[in-house]
Design a protein that fits this description.
The strands form three sheets. Strands 5-6-2-7-1-8-9-12 form an eight-stranded mixed sheet, with helices on both faces. Helix 1 (15-30) crosses helix 4 (132-149). With 298 residues, the chain is of the alpha/beta class. It starts with 14 loop residues before the first helix and ends with a helix. The chain has helices at 15-30, 48-61, 78-81, 132-149, 168-175, 190-206, 241-245, 255-263, 267-270, 275-296, and strands at 33-40, 66-70, 90-92, 95-97, 99-100, 106-108, 155-161, 181-186, 211-216, 221-222, 229-230, 247-250. The protein is globular and about 60 Å long.
């Protein structure tokens, strides 16, 4: 496949110039952002988005300025989870102003651009059967616009909630060459770990992106009556050795977390003393410590 620069003619679209200009805008935006973190799994259904929403909230409550990119273009959920789904985006000459939660977390999501609840993301093509040919390219283009054209201002942290798939991180790493680190999310399931290990290999060994750590979500169930921890999954919960070495923390299953997400109220904000909230706050602190150590290292 030819690169943009190898195309004999672009029919007057100046595609090379457009992509170059957008890449330059991304770099300009990133100069105002201290740390970038991708939250990924490779496997769907592990609670990655709810984890992102609550980590962003926890970091904000600790006094940081935080932005979030909902990088799941086709299945965006963070606007609802973070309580800003009805926000109307404002546009200025300097870019689009992100939605801002009650506590000040900034968010951009495709969900804020869709007119109806049941409206899918449809890409322009001769027919939707033909659109698959360019779908990945168009999704990356949309993500590039989210980062480049959003008026983030000064940020301590920019979190990117990636959709399932081990191919998603390379796209982000191409847009953000100096990606600060990756949080990898799994659950106590052999199927999940099988996919998550591939994501770890992609990040650490192929892309050379620092791994902040692995978070095991839904690690156990805490009895509401006695406080005892019980296994949530009927499988051996022992993590693979590779994942054990990278373990950041284990978050217990909490039904209230799902209800909070449905109601647009971050769980750590409403129930800060709950067991799952305490672990989420610890994970946020470990993210901060990771970057402190990085800054101190020669």
């Amino acid at each position: 496949m030819k690169t943009y620069n190898e195309l004999p003619s672009d029919a007057g679209s100046n595609i090379v110039g457009q992509v170059t200009a957008q890449a330059n805008r991304i770099q300009q935006r990133l100069t105002s952002i201290k740390h970038t973190v991708a939250v990924m799994s490779g496997k769907g259904g592990v609670g990655k988005s709810s984890l992102t929403a609550n980590l962003a909230t926890a970091l904000t409550l600790k006094g940081n300025t935080v932005g979030v990119v909902d990088a799941d273009i086709n299945g965006p959920t963070l606007a609802k989870m973070m309580g800003v789904r009805n926000v109307t985006l404002e546009y200025a000459t300097t870019g689009v102003k992100p939605a801002i939660t009650a506590i000040g977390t900034k968010l951009i999501s495709m969900d804020l651009l869709l007119a109806e609840d049941d409206a899918p993301v449809i890409w322009n093509a001769h027919s939707q059967k033909d659109a698959f040919t360019w779908r990945t390219t168009m999704e990356v283009g949309a993500l590039r616009e989210f980062i480049a054209d959003t008026e983030w201002g000064e940020l301590d942290y920019l979190l990117l909630d990636l959709p399932p798939g081990t191919d998603r991180l390379p796209n982000v790493a191409e847009l953000i060459p100096n990606l600060g680190g990756v949080i990898v999310v799994t659950i106590p399931s052999e199927v999940s770990q099988l996919i998550v290990k591939k994501s770890v290999t992609m990040a650490r060994d192929i892309l050379k992106v620092p791994i902040i750590g692995v978070v095991e979500n839904m690690a156990c169930y805490v009895c509401q009556h006695c406080g005892e921890e019980e296994p949530l999954f009927s499988v051996d919960e022992m993590l693979d050795k590779t994942l054990q070495q990278l373990m950041l923390d284990r978050i217990p299953f909490e039904p209230k977390l799902a209800r909070c997400s449905d109601n647009g109220i971050p769980y750590v904000e409403k129930y800060p003393e709950a067991p799952a909230s305490k672990v989420l706050i610890q994970v946020a602190e470990k993210i901060q410590n990771f970057f402190r150590k990085t800054e101190l290292s020669p």
